[in-house]
Amino acid sequence: METLGSIAKVVRSKNAGALYFTLDIMFAEDREYQRVKDSGVITHELIGELYGLSSNAVDVIYYDVAYAIKITIPRDVPSGDPSDTDVYGAQQHAPLLSIEIP
Q1: What is the greatest pairwise CA distance in the chain?
Q2: Are 21 and 37 in contact (CB under 8 A)?
Q3: What is the pLDDT of residues 49-64, one digit of tens each?
Q4: Do 99 and 4 contact (CB within 8 A), yes or no?
Q5: Element (H or E) spanning 88, and its range?
């Protein structure tokens, strides 16, 4: 079984304001995007489990035209907080890379 990290062209994270992260998954071709989308693996529940969140706190948006999936999750602490370990939100995508896609 292949992983999301090996199928997607880009998997990245960044801040979406001071209180949220956005996780972007982008594909080079429609075929790859449709494979992941149609697998039904990327769910609110899975993302919640990976990040220790309620599935209600997760937004998953499919952008068919761009062959992309955007996921928004809340930050544990606001960006720039003294206890923040990733001010730019650039290191939050790692749990997505090993998701297995049938």
Answers
A1: 43
A2: no
A3: 999 999 999 999 999 9
A4: yes
A5: none
